[in-house]
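Page 47, continued from p. 46.
Same chain as before, 200 aa.
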Amino acid sequence: MNGLFAPIRLFRLVLLGLALGLAGCAHQVSFQDVGYSTGAQRTGMGIVVVIDQDTLNRKTSIRSAMTGLAHNWEVEPGQMLKQVADIELPQMFDPYEQVSGDGESRSNGRSLILEMTVPGYDFADFRATITVRAIARAPTGRVLFDKTYTEQGDTQGGKMFWGGAFAMKSAIRQSSLDAYQKIFQALRGDLNNALRSGAA
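Result:
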């Protein structure tokens, strides 16, 4: 009788192992301890950056066959946006403030208002592709520009191939940071152009 039930027990153990493997591990991904210089010149104006709570709370699930489908990476593109804004924009504007509510009421008529969202985030073919929408307003509330920026980060295929699941988080971070830096470089140019034209 025991011999009859042994294959059934084995089958159940295999099913349990598959279920646990598919459940896998969830890894949160945002930037950590990032800091760099943009070389941007001060504008002599302040800025209030508005990133709404939905954007800050957004999570995008990433899986990769190369690093094992049992692993799931929860990327936080809104938190990444906030972290890069906190690094880049204070180098250009003073004072700098980041809020999740109504920026117009916080500008006191002296600071630019920059509303930012992340309509698109994807990590495929070993690189991040990110879309950011930015609406810049003069201290009066008048729209200076409303633009959408899409950039790809550097490919991280080599890191993922050799490092597997252990390197995936770093690959997502590095490619995402590269894409955000490209977006902010274009955004800084547009902000400078708006200020130089006297539109603000």
